Amino acid sequence: MHRLVELDEGVVVRELAVGDGLALAAAYLRNREHLAPWEPARTATFFTADWQESEVEVALQRLEAGTALPLVIVDGDEIIGRVNLSDIVRGVFLNANLGYWVDARYTGRGIATTAVGVAVAAARELGLHRVQAGTLVHNRASQLVLERNGFERFGLARRYLRIAGRWQDHLLFERLLEG
Question: Looking at the UniProt record for this protein, which Gene Ontology cellular component terms does it annotate, in alphabetical order (predicted)?
């Protein structure tokens, strides 16, 4: 997926690229409070351009290996979110995990819903059978994004991830891509 996919007036989804570290650091710093309840506790280093550029390098290695599809949501030169397929498994599973977030200034505009749709289409192009995602039990907005994209709830993972400094339960969703 080397093309740009337009989501909204001036907003596009594209593959993560070398040099995106500075814009990612700015996006994460700008959204630090907005994302804090939904993500792992972050150290100050996480919000630096150097740290983000090193993460870009790792993500691009995973892209090259076929185990991830790291995407950014961009408005002009500004990164305003992420949507990622990670832990892509081939063989009998043909599965990926989905993660996403949108800048606080852009919520409520359908951008997350549309970006997740782009990721689902990319998963289908990659020949995957299934995409799965987890949300915090109380994150109804994220659950709606998934439901609008045809995901169905299939379980509850107790104490699944350490989010905001504590182990938290997650609702699990899946989207089957065949048929």
Answer: ribosome
